[in-house]
Queue: 3 jobs
Job 1
Amino acid sequence: MPGRTGAGRVEGLDPLQWLRYRCAATGLRLRLARMPPTGAEPTGLGAGALMEPVVGGQDRSRAGGGTAGRLLALLAVVLVALVVIVVALTRFGGLEVVDQQFYSHISPATGKAEDIQFLYRLIFWLALVVFVGVQTAIVYTALKFRRRNETRPPQIHGNRTAEIAWTVIPAVVLLALFIPTAQTIFKHAAAEETADFEIDVLGKQWWWEFQYPGIPLSETDAAAGPLVTANEIMIPQGANVVFNLHSNNVIHSFWVPQLSGKRDVIPGHENRLQFTADKVGEYFGECTEFCGSAHAWMRFKVLVVPPPEFAAWVQAMRQPPAVDGNPETADVVEAPPAFGVCLACHRVNGTNAVIAQQGINSNPYGEGAGPNLSLLACRDTIAAGLLENTPENLARWLKETDDVKDGTYMPNYYEQGTINDQQVQELVDYLMTLKPAGGCPADPPVGGDPAFVPGQQTDDRALPQNQPIAVAPAAETQARAAVEGS
Ligand code: HEC
Ligand SMILES: [Cu+2]
């Protein structure tokens, strides 16, 4: 016996020899050391004895033909079952969704989202073919060519046929993915150049400001800047819309799964994203780049409405709120006095409540200005999708601001003692009046109009003739300059 070291190692053996020694010593019949002897016999131990074939090995391999056949049959059954399950799960290849999934790209509602969906399916099915092929080959090889005796099988290193096959097959698979992917990218990049409509998206912590650079807030006063809203964007049906994505704080990502792919919103760099929504509907979007504590509550909506309804919304956004029975609606004093503290951060169009900053230069790192509150009563949710917009929830928002949205940059004036219960109630009543005189427009169907026939329109379709908001280029430039200067 060789001597032992303190660590229980046997001196004079390399680790592999030591392992063999241990296995033999503990009676484990591991089949180590199947390689032919290297010539350099280990010293100090009759290791050759441990490299003898383990008893029973050859017997088993001789009896193996029937077992292998059975195993292969089993394998075939399992693979076929797997494919059947996958195909059944995906509704015989269509990957159709049973229920619409509003936060999922598998319910596409634009030509662009459908193109992305096509690529997704293509990759899925090609990957499935590759998976089944590779697994079958592995298991077949392992069974068919398993060791039956101690002679080495013929080596095929450098086999030309094999080398060509496993170079050409992956290349073909990659080409089959690459060509349609590149085509889709170029098709939609081209559509960005012919936008009917632009929207500036400003990612805030943790909400969204949306500006319409082509639509001045005031038809007479360009210095009033563009139309601005928050967390819910309205767009006309059929318009080729380009979103210019800006941030002045951290990186966000703009994603409306049913309408388009996602794109990052990066400080100091303008990204663009385009789509044409032909289906009237209400679509859900979200920030998909972790951007701080309330990142999960940075949701938004895209409302696609027929052009006339869009025009009506624009007009309503420009008007002062229609407060019932009040003769002087155009003044901020319509608001309860407690609203004074809110003016530092919030605007209400058509009133004097237009002090708060808006735009890219306001609100770095969340501090400062908040969402434009014009027509707030018509929004479905408040605090970027966090709470349904009801009087109870508005009161909750004012009283438990940072409890309901941890990390929010709106101060909790109730806890600070700036506003009391009665003032909260007055503010809620006031906020609920922020809607057009005729009431809020009806919401379009969630997830898109089910009666819409897909494939009849494409992304290349021009904006309908009755496109309501025509803006002279000069007015647009002025509006932009006014915003940038503010
Ligand atoms: C220091 C700036 C600031 C002040 C002052 C302020 N808010 Fe806010 N407010 C914000 C910010 C920022 C948000 C966005 C919060 C979020 O969603 O993360 C917000 C959101 C809101 C919302 C939800 C809007 C939406 O579209 O989701 C309402 C309603 C609101 N504030 C009402 C008020 C009222 C009423 C006051 C006065 C008592 C007030 N705020 C004072 C910054 C402020
Ligand atoms: Cu974000």
Note: The radius of gyration is 34 Å.
Job 2
Amino acid sequence: MQPKTPLVWNPILRQYLVNAPHRMNRREGIVTCPFCADITEGIVSPDTQVWIHPNDFPPLQPPVGEAYVVIYHRDHQRTFTQLSVKEVTAVAHVWRDLYIDLASRYPTVMIFENSGESIGQTQHHPHGQTFGVSVIPPILERELETVLQETAAGRGCPFCRVRAELEGEVYEVAANTTWQAFLPPYARYPYETHLYPRRHIANLAGMQENELRDCAELLLRVVRGYNALFDGAMAPMPYLMGIHQLADERFHLHVEILAIGRAPGKLKYAASAESLWGIWTNDSSPALKAQELREAIVKGGK
Ligand SMILES: [Zn+2]
Ligand SMILES: [Zn+2]
Ligand SMILES: [Zn+2]
């Protein structure tokens, strides 16, 4: 029996999961690129850099959700780290436009990227994804609960506090005028990196031009830093990157990058403790990994 909606409620964990059996047949490693086809078929002009492509196998459809692909560059061979700050800034502008559009219909806008074949990237063309979703996913809900508790207790925004506490500390890996990047002491993955805007901003709609540019600049520097670890022995670092944001003005937008590599040639898997209980084991010292990454970012920043 097919469920009526792809959002299936788990009454035990009290959270939704997406059931999308039609996605089993999506193309993997096929020869013709559906994003290059947008140009050859005249859907977008050949000089377009960034564009939005509807997800051909959407896990969610209206009214429960919408799914899109954001193409970062017309050049199929280009990788994210080969983009310029200006080009990534153009991508960030499209993220902001998409956020504004989808937030008018959905409480959650998930902007993310799965980078690397080992974690399920099926198309090589540089791209990321965006979902509008009619429910708030468990991790965002948990973060929002923290914000509401701390605000009610008169302690203000927990993200602002963490950012200030880690500023200039051993956990900071890079920073610029409006953003700060750190490897938190509570990192789940050895090279997990969080990027916070210095100003309290709930979502992309409130982000100014210089903040979008600085976000692009810092993202590029961090990912290039991953690829410079151990003289390039971990490149290209597979990672999951996502922007956490909400319409609630008490929330504080941030970017989380779960870098999957843990050492040259080795990946960190969400194994039993993580998957069956939700308790993460990080077998490395975040302060030490932050130092490695900080040095690699200096090297990788050309
Ligand atoms: Zn392509
Ligand atoms: Zn804040
Ligand atoms: Zn978060």
Note: Residues 7-300 form a domain with the HIT family, subunit A fold (CATH 3.30.428.10).
Job 3
Amino acid sequence: MAAKLTKFSFATLARKALEGHKSWPQQWPQAEPKAQYDVVIVGAGGHGLGAAHYLAKEHGITNVAVIEKGWLGGGNTGRNTTIIRSNYLYDESARLYDHALDLWEGLSQDLDYNVMFSQRGVMMLAHSVHDVQSFKRHIHANRLNGVMNEWLTPQEAKAFCPPLDISSTARYPVMGAALQRRGGVARHDAVAWGYARSAAARGVDIIQNCPVLAIRRDTAGGVTGVETAKGFIAAKKVAVSAAGYTSVVMDTAGVRLPLESFPLQALVSEPVKPVFPCVVMSNTVHAYISQSDKGELVIGSGTDQYVSYSQRGGLHLIEHTLAAICEIFPLFSRMRMLRKWGGVVDVTPDRSPILGKTPVSGLYVNCGWGTGGFKATPGAAHVFAHTIARDEPHPINAPYTLDRFRTGRLIDEAAAAAVAH
Ligand SMILES: Cc1cc2nc3c(=O)[nH]c(=O)nc-3n(C[C@H](O)[C@H](O)[C@H](O)COP(=O)(O)OP(=O)(O)OC[C@H]3O[C@@H](n4cnc5c(N)ncnc54)[C@H](O)[C@@H]3O)c2cc1C
């Protein structure tokens, strides 16, 4: 039975405050699996929950289960540094990530849940002549695609982000920056929770602590359902959104994917008063930084050099990241770090996702987001739901086929950006 959606109106908030905030109902029920669904989605991250929301809301498909091996949002959705931007190089990427950005701008209203989307601007630092040329190329390509992106001189970059060291003696000299003012950050847990409660209110079952062990196919090769820790669940369609574990899940259906799984780390500092007004990325020295609403500096590091499912990364990587942060922002050199964690990211050879149908009838996949899929969450989930509902890709995700690794029609953001948070 569908959960009742609490409306977060001013009147409700005021009434609940007067009641001491003791009577808030559960936001989504803990569902047990039914025997059969129209669609089973594997993985309750933002992408899986978002697809369930759009399936129910835009396609009227509500006999849906989202099956999660742990707790919802406990994967990369709850582990990332929340950077949102759309200034990717290629036309296909511009369409996909800008579609996501359009949806981010209305997401809190759509879900009636504050995802704390903050368009504080994402600034990418250029430290070498190569960076300058590459970023300017991006800016021109973005503008041709109607994607907002602009070039800043070092002085303009400093004015936008005062803690930045632009002195000529800096170890990593700042030669300018690309700024996307429309970019920013959002609260990652809230994205998962907002999609979950909206989907549940429309009749979707969210089943946690239930690993999917195998995808089952009939003798004709089509999907019949999934084997789980809670038994077999029949499904007309199965959609996999399992991030770093996608290749393992898809392998059980006999589909091999060109994915490698790497640990990727992030860390936060002790909380301080507001000091950092935007998001800054430095691809060259591999450091990303913003400040959370709690006051912590949120810092992103790089992937390990070797494949692993360990969900923690090597210490030397965060040491390198912090050394770079201290060089670029000497102001932070005496701050203490509070905690660090890792996630397992799924990386394709061209660093673009695989998003759509598979060679198996009734089986769909949304994966390969690597280090940068949080920003795509609403856009990817939206076009994935379209693909599942109609059994054909949306024009935006049509190029993101598995087949491109056979035909060579790559969307090579790896060569374009080196990294892709
Ligand atoms: C440290 C870090 C920093 C990052 N920073 C950024 C950033 O700044 N900006 C950005 O855009 N992106 C960033 N990313 C990437 C981003 O987090 C991911 O691309 C995105 O969250 C993927 O969302 P998802 O819903 O596909 O995956 P997830 O949230 O990982 O969801 C997949 C779910 O599938 C579940 N699952 C796996 N196997 C099974 C199974 N067998 N049965 C059932 N369930 C299963 C998992 O438990 C998980 O909950 C970062 C990632 C990390 C780790």
Note: The chain is about 30% helix and 25% strand.
